[in-house]
Amino acid sequence: MIRCEGTRNGWKMLCNGSLYRCACGHVGCRQTKDGLCTNQGYSVLGRCTACGAVGKAELIAPEAVGFRRTLMQDPQTA
Ligand SMILES: [Zn+2]
Ligand SMILES: [Zn+2]
Q1: Is the pLDDT of residue 64 over 70?
Q2: Residue 61: nearest ligand to its CA?
Q3: Nearest 5°: phi and psi at 47?
Q4: Is the pLDDT at 78 greater than 50, yes or no?
Q5: pLDDT tens digits for 4-59?
Q6: Distance 59 CA to ligand 2 centre (A)
Q7: pLDDT of residue 12
Q8: Of 16, 18, 26, 73, which one's alpha carbon is 20 to 30 angstroms from that of 55?
């Protein structure tokens, strides 16, 4: 199980969010606002904080892929 181990700012609790890996290798979670998690790797718009690429992140939570596959575009074809 791959989950974000960062801390949610303001809540002082484990993030436990889904992790994404950018084409540059940068790994982090996504949040609905900037700066919500100490391990947040992407801006609100999905921009990688390491290389600045947008839309290059792939979900790396295997247990969630099957569940979301019917709702989301397959990252392999994006
Ligand atoms: Zn996080
Ligand atoms: Zn990147």
Answers
A1: no
A2: 1
A3: -80, 130
A4: no
A5: 999 998 878 999 999 999 999 999 999 999 999 999 999 999 999 999 999 999 99
A6: 13
A7: 86
A8: 16
Q: How far is the CA of 14 from the centre of ligand 1 (A)?
A: 8
Domain that holds residue 16: 1-78
Give the total number of structural domains in the chain: 1
Strand bridging mode 19-21 / 27-29 = antiparallel
- How distant, in Å, are the alpha carbons of 13, 47, 70 from that of 43? 20, 5, 25
Enumerate long-range contacts of 6-11, CB under 8 Å, 24 or more apart.
6/37, 6/38, 6/39, 6/40, 7/37, 7/38, 7/39, 8/36, 8/37, 9/35, 9/36, 9/37, 9/38, 10/36
